[in-house]
């Protein structure tokens, strides 16, 4: 019979590399940031739904109180989007001469809100036109969100 001998492992060297503390810290920070971003995007999505629902209510009633609620939801959305650092900063494009042209979506939303406010206060627009204005504002907000 053959004798099987035990081989000691003391002669073998381990080649495991140790991770530095900064690598672990970075990945932990990334995970936490992703979690925060997901929560923020969920909140923005919920606010968009509230804005859409309130816009329909506003189109039906055309009262100042409903307009105030609608504007408050839009303001919350814009504040959250700014805090999240979404594409509110500046959108850059080129004009025909090749120069940089800066588009500010926030200004456009503000202008549309002013138009909507004027229309509701003057009571001269029907529900369909108000709903159209609400849809334009929602489109701008979705552009920020996407």
UniProtKB/TrEMBL annotation:
InterPro entries: DUF327, TM1646-like_dom_sf. Residues 1-24 are annotated as: Disordered. It comes from the Bacteria. This is DUF327 family protein.
């Amino acid at each position: 019979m053959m004798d099987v001998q035990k081989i000691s492992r003391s002669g073998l060297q381990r080649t495991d590399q140790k991770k530095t503390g900064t690598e672990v810290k970075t990945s932990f920070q990334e995970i936490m940031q992703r979690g925060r971003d997901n929560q923020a995007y969920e909140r923005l999505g919920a606010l968009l739904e509230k804005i859409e629902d309130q816009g329909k209510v506003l189109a039906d009633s055309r009262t100042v109180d409903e307009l105030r609620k609608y504007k408050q939801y839009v303001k919350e959305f814009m504040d959250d989007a700014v805090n999240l650092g979404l594409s509110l900063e500046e959108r850059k494009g080129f004009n025909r001469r090749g120069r940089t042209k800066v588009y500010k979506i926030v200004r456009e939303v503000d202008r549309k809100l002013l138009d909507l406010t004027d229309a509701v206060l003057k009571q001269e627009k029907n529900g369909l036109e108000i709903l159209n204005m609400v849809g334009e504002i929602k489109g701008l907000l979705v552009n920020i969100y996407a």
